[in-house]
Automatic annotation (TrEMBL):
<dbReference type="InterPro" id="IPR001087">
    <property type="entry name" value="GDSL"/>
</dbReference>
<dbReference type="InterPro" id="IPR008265">
    <property type="entry name" value="Lipase_GDSL_AS"/>
</dbReference>
<comment type="similarity">
    <text>Belongs to the 'GDSL' lipolytic enzyme family.</text>
</comment>
<dbReference type="InterPro" id="IPR050592">
    <property type="entry name" value="GDSL_lipolytic_enzyme"/>
</dbReference>
<dbReference type="InterPro" id="IPR035669">
    <property type="entry name" value="SGNH_plant_lipase-like"/>
</dbReference>
<protein>
    <recommendedName>
        <fullName>GDSL esterase/lipase EXL3</fullName>
    </recommendedName>
</protein>
<dbReference type="Pfam" id="PF00657">
    <property type="entry name" value="Lipase_GDSL"/>
</dbReference>
<dbReference type="InterPro" id="IPR036514">
    <property type="entry name" value="SGNH_hydro_sf"/>
</dbReference>
Length: 368
């Protein structure tokens, strides 16, 4: 603050004003940046410069906005609780797990979709998202709804690496790739849509052989990531998909119970996936390949919602909560924080926050 000393200070407390201004600025700065303050503490001398996501609608932050597919949610009421109610293509009322990973790690507030044409090199350096709502391990799953398959996502990842090399050089790119988290979240659509909801695979595969197909695809994808320089790779299991509201409505009987054969297929896949990732972790030098359980806590949430601060576990916030998803979500509940599910398939931001925090608390040291 500047004033003319010849006419004296402008107030009797003038000497305190710079201090007050400084503290006011610091408080304001702290509030503005609170969304990127790390909630998970890393060991000393360890850093995670970026997070990169691959997968489906659980973690898609808007890639489907930029491709020709019916699997889009870039319209209200999606995004109801996202930065003033802005729909962005996230399949929830607010942030999704990919956003929450970078937020909890203190990297940035949101993980942008790679296909966003406005991205700058600064965005790429700290991580991007290749996930596409509707994708699966089975190539047929993505083909049916015309979204980015894992092969497509891998090709975009290669393009991303080339952009990094042009922007920051090969040495720094290699460092970013080796130190960053690469997270894969996919599999639910394969079991619910491609296998159980259509005859396209059931005529050729039983559940055991179909889950083998999925695991083989997961293993191949992880090995491709490793071959491109990724070293810290986390792979989500499949959640208890028989308990999502849509499946309870369609196949859970009059009582809308959890559909056991869906959950059993998810558990079988998870068991095989965990074993395969353990084998890869042993056989790939310098790899930190981690299986991330997303089955047990969601199941506990669904059976014991009040324990976690929720009221409704068998219906989504949007519409009747029983079958609506995407364009069928024409209206919503008044308070999504009471619900575990946002629509009949995807969770609310509040539920995702709880899950992501526990995943990072339980597994972050496994990557180091």
């Amino acid at each position: 603050m500047h004033y003319d000393a010849s006419i004296g200070p402008p107030c009797s407390d003038c000497n305190t004003l710079p201090i007050l201004f400084t503290w006011t600025f610091l408080i304001f700065f702290s509030i503005v940046n609170s969304h990127v303050r790390a909630a998970v503490k890393l060991p000393d001398n360890e850093t995670i410069p970026a997070v990169v996501f691959f997968g489906d609608s659980i973690v898609d932050t808007g890639n489907n906005n930029y491709i020709k597919t019916v699997v889009k949610v870039n319209y209200p009421p999606y995004g109801k609780d996202f930065m003033g109610g802005k729909p962005t293509g996230r399949f929830s009322d607010g942030k999704v797990p990919s956003d929450l990973f970078v937020e909890e790690l203190g990297i940035k507030g949101l993980l942008p979709p790679y296909l966003d044409p406005t991205l700058e090199i600064e965005d790429l350096i700290t991580g991007v998202n290749f996930a596409s709502g509707g994708a699966g391990y089975d190539p047929l799953t993505s083909e049916i709804v015309s979204v980015l398959s894992l092969s497509d996502q891998l090709e975009l990842f290669k393009e991303y690496i080339m952009k990094l090399k042009v922007g920051v050089g090969e040495e720094r790119t290699d460092s970013i790739l080796s130190k960053s988290l690469h997270i894969v979240v996919v599999g639910s659509n394969d079991i619910t849509n491609t296998y159980f909801s259509s005859p396209l695979r059931r005529s050729h595969y039983d559940v055991a052989s179909y889950t083998d197909l999925m695991v083989n695809s997961a293993s191949t994808f992880v090995q491709h990531l490793y071959g491109l320089g990724a070293r810290k790779i986390g792979v989500f299991g499949v959640p208890p998909i028989g308990c999502v509201p849509a499946q309870r409505t369609l196949a859970g009987g009059v009582q809308r119970n959890c559909v056991e054969n869906y959950n059993q297929a998810a558990q079988l896949f998870n068991y095989k996936l965990s074993a395969e990732l353990k084998s890869l972790n042993s056989n790939l030098p310098q790899a930190r390949v981690v299986y991330l359980d997303i089955y047990n806590l969601p199941l506990d949430l669904i059976y014991e919602p009040k324990k976690y601060g929720f009221e409704i576990a068998n219906k989504g916030c949007c519409g009747t909560g029983s079958v609506e998803v995407a364009y069928l979500c024409t209206y919503t509940c008044t308070n999504a924080s009471k619900y575990i599910f946002w629509d009949s398939f995807h969770l609310t931001e509040k539920a995702y926050r709880l899950l992501v925090h526990q995943i990072l608390e339980n597994h972050i040291y496994s990557f180091i």
